[in-house]
Design brief:
single chain, 375 residues, alpha/beta, Rossmann fold, 14 helices
Length: 375
């Protein structure tokens, strides 16, 4: 391992821009960062420079509107060829590998799936190079840990992707090969505390999500109507409850509110809608907030999301995010308060910008990762 901060770092995978924002911060510290990712599905997160290595998703070929069954093997074989050629450029190159989530890893090399195997990862590491796992998305411990916001019954869990025998084997093998697990928020940290109770040294300190976006924003000024934006994501984030609350708000305050509800927009299109909003509604089934909420804060918006006392205790911060829970009346009440006291919008928005720039800035967060990697 180098004795300075300028590490060669490989990041595998992406979740809602987390890895891209971290990469920007690490690069500003002088690190060489290569990011292998898949664009995070329909969000279509784009590359930020030539050091990004895009891995294309495997799907069937369509000809004249008709799907050619089995053609995904052909595409997979071709993309796997490109993937192996990309990896060869980095043999024994990296000091650190950060795996965003175990779903981006496979046990063995495949001729038709362009995913990293454990052999691939070890081949690109220098002697004494380190592997870390970021606890920032769905993993086995997260689904096993039952909390007051749990939204899955046991039958659903047993049939889920993360409970397949192959996935459990990959996850446990990954834990055997890593130096440590770095959670990004309370619920992931807490789930891994339970899962790693017999190996507490594996779980490292929680490091907040990074935000690299710098908006030149003015005060969050309300026009003729207060604009609320809600981007529908996965159902487990409380979509139905939030939609019911918004419908109630619309029926009571249609003369002063303008509600925009979108679904499965690309990252670039979604960001433009955030710019036009006064209030961003994120999710209601969580202790903490994610990258979507940070985008809202950075853009100078009032954000409603998870912000339970456990979240603030984990970070040791007073966080200017309005906490919402899976309760229609509670969400309605929080929104109603803003509609009836619009002066609060500018005040809370200003506090949010200060907070995200001082606590979630990508360089500030990247320094914590580098310190962790150097220990």
């Amino acid at each position: 391992m180098k004795n300075n901060n300028k590490l060669n770092i490989l990041i595998i995978g992406e979740y809602s821009g987390f890895a891209q924002n971290l990469k920007i911060g690490l690069q500003k510290l002088g690190c060489k960062v290569v990011h292998f990712h898949y664009g995070d599905g329909w969000k279509k997160i784009k590359t930020i420079d030539d050091s990004d290595e895009i891995i294309f998703p495997i799907s069937n070929i369509y000809l004249s509107g008709h799907k050619i069954r089995g053609s995904h093997y052909i595409k997979g074989f071709y993309y796997s060829f490109l993937f192996r050629r990309q990896i060869k450029k980095y043999i024994s190159f990296f000091d650190v590998v950060l795996v965003v989530n175990s779903e981006f890893i496979r046990s063995n090399c495949s001729f038709w799936l362009p995913y990293f195997s454990f052999k691939n990862i070890k081949s690109v590491l220098k002697h004494r190079g380190k592997i870390y796992l970021s606890a920032c998305g769905g993993e086995l411990p997260v689904y096993l840990y039952i909390n007051r916001f749990s939204k899955y019954d046991q039958l659903t869990l047993q049939n889920s992707f993360y409970f397949r025998k192959q996935r459990i084997a990959i996850f446990n093998k990954l834990l055997e090969n890593i130096i440590g697990i770095i959670p990004v928020m309370y619920e992931y940290a807490e789930a891994f505390r339970y899962y790693c109770a017999n190996n507490k040294n594996l779980l490292l300190s929680t490091i907040p999500l990074p935000m690299a976006s710098k908006y030149d924003v003015k005060s969050n000024i309300v026009g003729d109507k207060i604009k609320i934006l809600y981007g529908i994501n996965r159902e487990n984030k409380g979509n139905a409850i939030i939609l019911a609350a918004l419908e109630k708000i619309e029926s009571c305050y249609s003369d002063i509110v303008d509600i925009t509800i979108v679904k499965r927009l690309s990252y670039a299109k979604y960001v433009t809608l955030i710019d036009e909003a006064n209030i961003l509604v994120d999710q209601c089934r969580s202790y903490s907030y994610g990258m979507n909420a940070l985008l809202g804060l950075a853009a100078g918006k009032v954000v409603l999301s998870g912000n339970e006392p456990e979240c603030e205790k984990e970070f040791g911060q007073n966080i200017p995010i309005i906490n919402i829970i899976p309760d229609v009346d509670q969400i309605f009440s929080q929104l109603e308060k803003l509609l009836l006291q619009p002066d609060l919008i500018a005040k809370i928005s200003a506090e949010g910008r200060v907070f995200v720039n001082s606590f979630h800035d990508s360089v500030i967060v990247a320094k914590q990762y580098v310190k962790c990697f150097m220990e």
